[in-house]
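Customer escalation, tier 2.

The customer says the design service returned an amino acid string that "doesn't look like it belongs to this structure." They asked us to rerun it and document both sides in this ticket. The original C-alpha cells are below, unchanged.
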C-alpha cells in the first residue's frame, strides 16, 4: 500500500499493517518467520533508489545508540477499564504498565548474536495524548486508548509500520531523512480500546482475571512487528499471528537469567538476520535450495516466469533437540538489480554451526491455519509494476503469483 503523498517530502512510503488475531488453535503447526521487505521506488534516480528492485529487509536504523525512540500513551480506557493491573492506584497502574512495556522491549534486545541491544533504544517516554499513534510523527508509540479503522472484527492489536522506499525520505520537516531502503520511519502499536468484551491484564493481574488477555504477550508480539517482523507460521513463535487464549501467555515468562525466554528459536534466528552482529561466530551457517513441483505443469500459468513453488515454508529442525531452529517463507530469489524471481528458492541463514550440529529440512504449504495473507500482507513488498505504481520502469516490474495450491513434499536426499 503506498499512501500519504506529502509534498515536499519524497514519497510514497511503504506502510505495512500487521494484526494480531484472536483464534483458537486446533492443530499443532510448524512454519516460518517472515521478515518485512520493501521494494525501492525505481522511478527515482539510483542515488535515491539504490539502483536495485530486489526486496530489502524492513528494519530500524540502529547506527547510533538510543536511535530507536519509544513512547507510550498514559491515556487508558476507564469505561470500561481495558488494562487491568494488580495495583489500582493511578501511579501504580502506570508503573505496572510501564514495567510490562520495558520487559517486552528487553525480550527483543537480549538475544545473542544481534546488534539490537538495550542501548539501541531511547528512553521510554510517556505522553498523555490518547491518539499518540500517528504514523506521520516519526515517533514509535504504544497506544491503549486510541480507536482506529484497523480494528476489524477479531483484531486485538496491530502495529502500523511505515518504511522508506527511497533514500532521503522524511515524514516531516523535522524528522531525519532515511538513509537506506526499508528503514522504519515510524512504528506504532495499538491495542483494542473501549471494548467491554476484551480486557488486557498485566502478569501481576492475570491470575485473578483469567478472562483477560496477557498484556505482556500481546505487547511483545507487536514490538516484534515494530522491529521488522511479519508473522510466523511456527505455532510456538512469538510472531505466530494468533494470540494465546485469555488467561494464558505465550511460552515462558522472561527472567533475569533468561530475558529472551518467550521467544522461540525461530524468532531469534529472524532477529539475527534483521540485526546481525558481525562478531557472532556461532550463527553463521546457511542451507539453501529450491522447492520445485514434481510436475512443472502444476505451476500457475500466470504470471509468466514462475519456475518454482511460492510460497512454501521451509523448516530446519535441529536433530539434537527436535526444535525448529529456523524456518523461512520461501519461493523467490533476487539478484541485483532485480526484480524478484519466483523460482522456489529458499535460504536458511544464521544457523548455529558446530561439529555435532545437523538439521532436517522440510517444506510445507501455507494451507492453514496460517495462510499467505497472514504472513505477507501486501505482495507489493516483493514486486511492484505499472499497475501498482504508474510509470514503473518495465525492466524492474514483476508480479507475485497467487498462493500455490497445497502440495505434498518429498525430500530429495542430499549427497
Ligand atoms: Zn501480529
Amino acid at each position: 500500500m503506498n499512501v500519504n503523498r506529502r509534498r515536499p517530502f519524497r514519497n510514497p512510503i511503504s506502510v505495512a499493517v500487521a494484526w494480531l488475531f484472536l483464534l483458537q488453535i486446533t492443530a499443532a503447526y510448524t512454519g516460518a518467520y517472515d521478515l518485512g521487505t520493501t521494494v525501492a521506488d525505481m522511478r527515482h534516480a539510483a542515488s535515491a533508489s539504490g539502483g536495485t528492485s530486489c526486496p530489502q529487509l524492513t528494519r530500524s536504523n540502529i547506527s547510533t545508540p538510543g536511535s530507536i525512540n519509544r513512547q507510550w500513551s498514559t491515556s487508558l480506557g476507564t469505561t470500561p477499564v481495558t488494562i487491568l493491573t494488580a495495583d489500582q492506584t493511578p501511579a501504580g497502574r502506570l508503573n505496572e504498565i510501564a514495567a510490562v512495556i520495558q520487559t517486552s522491549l528487553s525480550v527483543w534486545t537480549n538475544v545473542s548474536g544481534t546488534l539490537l541491544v538495550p542501548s539501541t533504544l531511547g528512553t521510554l517516554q510517556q505522553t498523555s495524548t490518547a491518539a499518540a499513534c500517528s504514523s506521520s510523527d516519526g515517533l514509535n508509540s504504544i497506544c491503549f486508548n486510541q480507536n482506529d479503522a484497523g480494528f476489524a472484527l477479531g483484531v486485538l492489536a496491530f502495529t502500523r509500520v511505515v518504511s522508506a522506499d527511497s533514500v532521503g525520505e522524511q515524514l516531516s520537516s523535522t524528522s531525519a531523512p532515511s538513509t537506506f531502503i526499508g528503514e522504519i520511519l515510524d512504528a506504532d502499536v495499538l491495542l483494542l480500546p473501549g471494548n467491554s468484551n476484551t480486557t488486557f491484564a498485566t502478569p501481576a493481574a492475570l491470575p485473578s482475571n483469567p478472562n483477560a488477555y496477557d498484556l505482556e504477550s500481546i505487547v511483545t508480539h507487536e514490538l516484534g512487528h515494530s522491529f521488522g517482523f511479519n508473522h510466523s507460521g511456527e505455532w510456538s513463535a512469538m510472531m505466530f499471528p494468533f494470540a494465546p487464549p485469555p488467561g494464558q501467555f505465550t511460552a515462558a515468562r522472561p527472567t533475569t537469567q533468561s530475558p529472551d525466554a518467550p521467544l522461540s528459536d525461530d524468532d531469534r534466528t529472524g532477529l539475527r538476520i534483521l540485526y546481525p552482529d558481525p562478531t557472532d561466530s556461532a550463527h553463521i551457517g546457511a542451507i539453501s535450495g529450491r522447492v520445485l513441483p514434481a510436475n512443472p505443469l502444476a505451476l500457475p500459468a500466470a504470471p509468466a516466469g514462475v519456475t518454482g513453488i511460492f510460497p512454501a515454508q521451509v523448516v530446519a529442525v535441529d536433530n539434537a533437540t527436535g526444535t525448529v531452529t529456523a524456518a523461512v517463507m520461501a519461493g523467490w530469489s533476487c539478484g541485483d538489480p532485480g526484480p524478484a524471481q519466483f523460482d522456489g528458492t529458499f535460504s536458511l541463514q544464521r544457523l548455529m554451526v558446530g561439529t555435532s550440529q545437523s538439521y532436517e529440512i522440510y517444506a510445507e504449504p501455507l494451507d492453514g491455519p496460517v495462510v499467505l495473507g497472514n504472513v505477507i500482507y501486501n505482495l507489493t513488498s516483493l514486486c511492484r509494476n505499472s499497475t501498482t505504481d504508474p510509470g514503473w520502469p518495465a525492466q524492474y516490474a514483476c508480479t507475485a503469483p497467487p498462493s500455490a495450491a497445497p502440495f505434498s513434499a518429498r525430500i530429495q536426499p542430499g549427497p
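Tier 2 assessment: The sequence is consistent with the input. The pocket of zinc ion is lined by residues 18, 20, 221, 225, 231, 241 (CB under 6 Å). Residues 1-13, 20-33 have pLDDT under 50 and may be disordered. Sent an explanation to the customer and offered a walkthrough call.
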